[in-house]
Circularly permuted ATP-grasp type 2 domain-containing protein
Amino acid sequence: MAARPAFDELWGASAGEEVRAGFEPLGEWLRETSAAELDRRQHAAEAAFRSLGITFNVYGEDEAAERIIPFDIIPRILSAGEWARLSAGLEQRVHAINAFVDDVYGARKILADGVVPADIVLGNEQFCVPVAGARPPHGVYAHICGIDLVRTGPDEFYVLEDNARTPSGVSYMIENREAMLRLCPELFERLAVRPVDTYPELLRDTLQSVAPDGAVQPRCVLLTPGHYNSAFYEHSFLANNMGIELVEGRDLEVDDDIVWMRTIDGRVRVDVIYRRIDDAFIDPLVFRPDSMLGVSGLMAAYLAGNVTLVNAPGTGIADDKAIYSYMPDIVRYYTGEEPRLPNVETWRCREPASLQYTLDHLDELVVKLVDGSGGYGMLVGPTASRAEIEAFRAALIAQPQRYIAQPTLALSTIPTITDKGIVPRHVDFRPFVLTGSSGVTTVPGGLTRVALREGSLVVNSSQGGGTKDSFVLDGERAATAGST
């Protein structure tokens, strides 16, 4: 994929006077709304987010780390046809992810058949040895997936990353929609936008559907590391909107392989735990003995089939970027179909030829740690300094198996309000896919992340990126009496 000018999702291949077909109402709204009014609404959104405490941590800066999530009121729009193609591809991919995780902790047929090298799985830090040979209730591992997508043209979508451990960002999707309904209600009169506010209900139904057999009225809780965690706002938001208890490790105990929640009225049995704690910290008897965040004996209860953990321990193997490079083969292996959503071209630096290519083209490529996240441990060659490139060169030579490389894509842009006026900024997209005992559901929307710095391709909120609302249109018409 050769470098080329970025595709703008409103204006098309190049900014002009005519918006893309079907998106005329947004273009008209931008022309009709004065810069002063857009600025007023933008500041109103920031004030609302501040009052709600919608925050995220920005690491590595001297000033206060906790910040309000930057939010831009110009939405991203996906047509009904675009969404139909995306959701079909997302469901196919998540089905393959669950089949893959089930297989590598079970029969390991895909390893025996040589589709994925055994050492890249069994020797992976994310491979959870304690759950090998065990299956979660209903055989679902990745109940909640956030699949990161990028776009490079009108019909060119690629999967950039699979998030199958504890994907975050869905609360911002919902709060962004609430902000847009309050601040820009006329857009919903002009555009038929599908709702996203049913997500907490869908998630609660998913949690209840995967409760262990025999749980007549399953009790679900959300396990958080606590209010110092960067995503604590989301934890409390989701628990509150699902109507379930938000708990920390000290609120739970395990007795005879059954999990109990301490309450002022005594102990209450817990059937499903939506855990927002990484594997390493969930049970000090099995993983890190110094963990103060988890629950002693939790894994014994899980392995006995008495509690469901969402997502299941061990799903992190599907997050690994080296595994990601095999996902097209994994999709073919388990579905018998061609992938509907392709990967970004990827060079596995563990392979000598790929390593040499990467070393020869460092100034052109994006290089990532296979177990990295949040935009950390990453080199963006075209914008990196000579010193940064040489530091990565040394790291690659020393431990090539820790890295993959990808081309620097011309990510699509969306008009964004800045100090310089309305200008294009690069975006990515994280839709959320739920898998319960009865099947897969893709929420009609997602988290659009925007790189606020001019020319930047790094959209992560943890590194100063912002967010936008994502409008999925209901039907092929763009102008109608809208739903919310």
In short: The chain is about 30% helix and 25% strand. Residues 58-64, 477-484 have pLDDT under 50 and may be disordered. The domain at 346-408 is CATH 3.30.1490.270 (Dna Ligase; domain 1). The CA atoms of residues 84 and 230 lie 33 Å apart.
